[in-house]
Each structure stands twice: as structure tokens, then as C-alpha cells.
């Protein structure tokens, strides 16, 4: 191929040819005549076409082309023909033929045996013998014909496709004619006034390209709010308007005492196993626990109290002191209720929190090892569970009784979906804290990810949160509104 020509030379050659001949039937052939690649000519054609200097007609054709493996067979012969040619009159061992043919050996053996071109010595299956003097290498002939652009039968195409020797390739080229704004030499219009133009004074004689006032400006570089944050803010606003105060959730690392024991969850509960919880190696434990309250929690676990029989086991302080990554924000609720119990006189409260929790779970399309939990609670005298327009399913939590899973009907999905868990905190949890008799706590929790996935139509949690998030999702997501 000739040395690459500047685009201006390619353009000059094309316009001169159109001026004299009036058309270019095949841009591929014309690119060859100029000694340039079709890609170089194509960029010039598109530029001239945009200014209506040339009219182009796109020609699209799908053709079968040889794979690299097939090109080798077209040059050297099919594997079966190569195999037969490599066998001397006295025969050859399989190892010798494999060393000579390489990857073509196995394919060649099968095809040659199927064509009955080879056989084996009786009693010695390792010695390969020729059964024919000459072979008609149809495969090589078919590949050469296809490479030369000749038409081959559909049956041959199907066979070559099956052997993965050909692949379909789309070719695009152009036929060209003079356009309504045709000129032999295009005038280059200036787009900016430069310092050199001002110094030389030639700005007086320049022709400038017209401004396109309808063109879009450059996108402004700005930040975008993540869908999770959109939904989080909307939920926070709902809680705030209803008079809820936010609980501090700055403890990602929590003790087993607040995460489990204070919630009346026995120390042998499966959730406290390392298969479900991330325990810390350093610092592995804490001593910073309220001693009086800890002793009451110990007694309620071991022997009961406040109308409860307890669990009847030997409660161990070492287990309660273990540090972990909190598995739920209910640990924060326990801390806040204990703090509230120390304030006299008692005052009703409404609390909420939204923050991360961590669980040792297998990651899949609906589960992550870390996610966000929404939690709310109301603490007051004489509370009941009077609610409507939702469905509840009985459930079990060590720290609530009754316990219920919450389901809501989603109009978009046309089905009932689980949105969270709920219940009333047990006396075994509340009374050791020091809360007055007759004070009830209604609590509920749900993930932030689940409603966000529903509202944004996302079916894989890894597309919403974590290292696989596509930033275009964040950039292009509409502003979300709850209550859809």
C-alpha cells in the first residue's frame, strides 16, 4: 500500500474524479486507485456529504469470510488431506503424525477415517496406513472459491459453519455522485479568530463558518444524586414530617451485647454464628458495658423475670463482649431506649434511623454483605397495632412479640411484596432497661435497597450498590417520588 496521503489530497483526488467522471460506483475500488485505505476515504466522504458537496448511497452487503484456521487450510490443504500427505508408504505412528500436524491431527484423523482414506495395521491400532494414493481435497477447493467471492451451495455453507471455518461479515461501501453544492475545491471556512489572524490582518479577508444556534452546548460537569440517596431523603422527610427524631448511627462496630443480648436474643441463636455475622479480630472484645443493666440482662436470659421464664442457660459475659459489624440498626434502637429509660420523668418518643448494616451472606441478585436498613419505633403508654391497607404474616424475632412480616401491594409489579419486619418489643427487653410498666414500643424495619429497586425498576441489587454500579444509571435516573 502506498504511503498514507493527507486527507486534503484524498479530498482533492475525489472531487477531481467526480468533476471529470461524474460518479464513483464503488468507493472500495476508488480507495485502491488512490492508494489509501477505505477508512481514510470514508472519513472524507462523510465530511463532503455533510456539506452536500457529494451525494452518497450506502451499499451494505453481508459476506462469508474465512476464519484464521480456514485461511490456513486454504493455503496448506484440509487437515485430512495434510494427514494423508504426511503418511509414508510404510505407514506412520499416531505420535509421529501428531508431532508433524499439531492441532490439525485430531480433526484430520476423524475426517480421513470417515472418508476411508486411512486404515490401521491389523493388531496395531497405533500404525496409520494410507488407503488411497491421491485425494480430492474438496474442503480446500470450497474455501478457495469462497475466498475469491464465488458462490457456493448452501449445503457447503452449512458444513463450513458447523466446522466454524467461516463467519459472516458486514461490508459497507458507497456509490458517489455530485451533490447540489458540488465544487472542485472546497473553501475552508474559519471557525475562530486567532492571535495570528489579528497580527497579520488577514482576518479582514477570512470567511467564517456560520454559527449553529440550534446546536447543543457541552454538558455541564456536575454531580448527581445516587438513587439510594434520593429514596433515603424522601423517607427521611416522611419521618421528619411525622415528628420522628433521628437516632445516631455512627457505630458500625457494635458489641454482641447491644446487637444481640440486650434484644433478648439467646447466645446460642444461629444468627450469632460466624456464618451469619462478621466478628472483629482486633479489637475482639469490649469492656465498656453498663454493669447494672448487663446484670439484669444476664438474669432475664438465665432465669427470666417480669413474667418471663427466660431461656434457662448459663449466660456468658465473654460472648456479650465480642465485637462485630452490626447486623441490624436495632442495636441502635436498644441503646436509645436504654438512654430514654434513664431520663426521668419518662417522655414518649418517636425515633428513626437509616444506615448500613453488615451480614455474612452469599452475594446474589437480591442480597449483599452490606446494605441499608430503615428502622422506626414509637415508645409510649398504651400502644396497639391498629393498622390498615397492609398485609401481615406472623414471624419470629427474639426481641418482639407479636412479630410480623409486612407486605404491601405494588401496583407496578401487580403483586404483594415483602417490605419489612415489625413487632412490639418484649417486656424482657424493655423492663430491664428501666422503662416504666405499661410503656410499649412498636418497631419496624426494612431495607433501603428493596423499595429503591422497586421504584427504579432495578432487578439486581449489584446494579444499585457496590463496585459494579454503572455511573450512567446515577446520571440518567429520574427524580424519584414515593407513593407510586
From TrEMBL:
Give a Gene Ontology cellular component term annotated to this protein: cytoplasm
Give yes or no: UniProt keyword tRNA processing.
no
Per UniProt, residues of the Aminoacyl-transfer RNA synthetases class-II family profile domain are 230-467
An example GO BP is:
translation
User: Superkingdom of this entry's organism?
Assistant: Eukaryota
NCBIfam families, A to Z: pheS, PRK04172.1
Q: Which InterPro entries match?
A: aa-tRNA-synth_II (IPR006195), aa-tRNA-synth_II/BPL/LPL (IPR045864), Phe-tRNA-synth_IIc_asu (IPR004529), Phenylalanyl-tRNA_Synthase (IPR002319), PheRS_DBD3 (IPR040725)
Q: What is the lineage of its organism?
A: Eukaryota, Viridiplantae, Streptophyta, Embryophyta, Tracheophyta
Q: Which GO terms describe its molecular function?
A: ATP binding; metal ion binding; phenylalanine-tRNA ligase activity
Which Gene3D superfamilies does the UniProt record give?
A: 1.10.10.2320, 1.10.10.2330, 3.30.1370.240, Bira Bifunctional Protein, Domain 2
- State what protein this is by name: phenylalanine--tRNA ligase
Key words of the record? Aminoacyl-tRNA synthetase, ATP-binding, Cytoplasm, Ligase, Magnesium, Metal-binding, Nucleotide-binding, Protein biosynthesis
Compartments (UniProt record) = Cytoplasm
UniProt-listed Enzyme Commission number(s) = 6.1.1.20
The reply to whether DNA repair figures as a keyword in the UniProt entry is no
Mind telling me which CDD domains this protein's record contains?
PheRS_alpha_core
Family, similarity comment:
Belongs to the class-II aminoacyl-tRNA synthetase family. Phe-tRNA synthetase alpha subunit type 2 subfamily.
The coenzyme or cofactor needed here is: Mg(2+)
Amino acid at each position: 500500500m502506498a504511503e498514507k496521503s493527507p486527507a486534503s489530497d484524498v479530498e482533492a483526488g475525489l472531487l477531481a474524479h467526480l468533476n471529470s467522471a461524474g460518479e464513483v460506483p464503488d468507493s472500495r475500488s476508488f480507495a485502491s486507485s488512490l492508494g489509501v485505505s477505505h477508512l481514510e476515504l470514508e472519513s472524507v466522504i462523510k465530511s463532503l456529504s455533510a456539506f452536500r458537496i457529494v451525494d452518497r448511497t450506502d451499499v451494505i452487503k453481508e459476506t462469508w469470510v474465512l476464519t484464521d484456521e480456514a485461511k490456513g487450510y486454504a493455503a496448506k490443504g484440509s487437515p485430512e488431506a495434510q494427514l494423508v500427505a504426511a503418511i509414508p508408504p510404510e505407514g506412520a505412528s499416531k505420535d509421529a503424525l501428531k508431532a508433524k500436524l499439531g492441532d490439525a491431527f485430531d480433526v484430520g484423523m476423524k475426517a480421513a477415517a470417515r472418508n476411508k482414506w486411512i486404515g490401521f495395521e491389523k493388531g496395531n491400532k497405533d500404525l496409520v496406513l494410507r488407503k488411497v494414493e491421491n485425494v480430492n481435497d474438496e474442503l480446500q477447493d470450497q474455501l478457495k472459491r469462497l475466498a475469491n467471492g464465488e458462490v457456493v451451495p448452501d449445503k457447503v455453507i452449512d458444513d463450513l459453519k458447523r466446522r466454524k471455518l467461516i463467519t459472516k461479515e458486514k461490508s459497507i461501501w458507497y456509490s458517489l455522485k455530485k451533490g447540489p453544492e458540488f465544487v472542485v475545491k472546497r473553501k475552508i471556512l474559519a471557525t475562530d479568530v486567532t492571535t495570528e489572524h489579528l497580527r497579520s490582518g488577514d482576518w479582514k479577508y477570512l470567511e467564517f463558518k456560520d454559527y449553529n444556534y440550534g446546536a447543543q452546548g457541552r454538558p455541564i460537569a456536575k454531580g448527581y444524586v445516587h438513587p439510594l440517596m434520593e429514596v433515603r431523603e424522601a423517607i427521611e422527610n416522611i419521618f421528619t414530617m411525622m415528628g420522628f427524631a433521628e437516632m445516631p448511627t455512627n457505630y458500625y462496630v457494635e458489641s454482641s451485647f447491644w446487637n444481640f443480648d440486650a434484644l433478648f436474643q439467646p447466645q446460642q441463636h444461629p444468627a450469632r454464628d460466624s456464618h451469619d455475622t462478621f466478628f472483629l479480630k482486633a479489637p475482639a472484645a469490649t469492656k465498656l458495658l453498663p454493669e447494672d443493666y448487663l446484670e439484669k440482662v444476664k438474669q432475664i436470659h438465665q432465669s427470666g423475670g417480669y413474667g418471663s421464664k427466660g431461656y434457662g442457660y448459663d449466660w456468658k459475659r465473654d460472648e456479650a463482649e465480642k465485637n462485630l459489624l452490626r447486623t441490624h440498626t436495632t442495636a441502635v434502637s436498644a441503646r436509645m431506649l436504654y438512654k430514654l429509660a434513664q431520663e426521668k420523668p419518662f417522655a414518649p418518643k418517636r425515633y428513626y434511623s437509616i444506615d448500613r448494616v453488615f451480614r455474612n451472606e452469599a452475594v446474589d441478585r437480591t442480597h449483599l454483605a452490606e446494605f441499608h436498613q430503615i428502622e422506626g419505633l414509637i415508645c409510649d403508654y398504651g400502644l396497639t397495632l391498629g393498622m390498615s391497607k397492609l398485609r401481615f404474616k406472623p414471624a419470629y424475632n427474639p426481641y418482639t412479640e407479636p412479630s410480623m412480616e409486612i407486605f404491601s401491594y405494588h401496583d407496578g409489579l401487580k403483586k404483594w411484596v415483602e417490605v419489612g419486619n415489625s413487632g412490639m418489643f418484649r417486656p424482657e427487653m424493655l423492663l430491664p432497661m428501666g422503662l416504666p410498666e405499661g410503656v410499649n414500643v412498636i418497631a419496624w424495619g426494612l431495607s433501603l435497597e428493596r423499595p429503591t429497586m422497586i421504584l427504579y425498576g432495578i432487578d439486581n441489587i449489584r446494579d444499585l450498590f457496590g463496585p459494579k454500579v454503572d455511573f450512567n444509571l446515577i446520571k440518567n435516573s429520574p427524580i424519584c417520588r414515593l407513593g407510586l
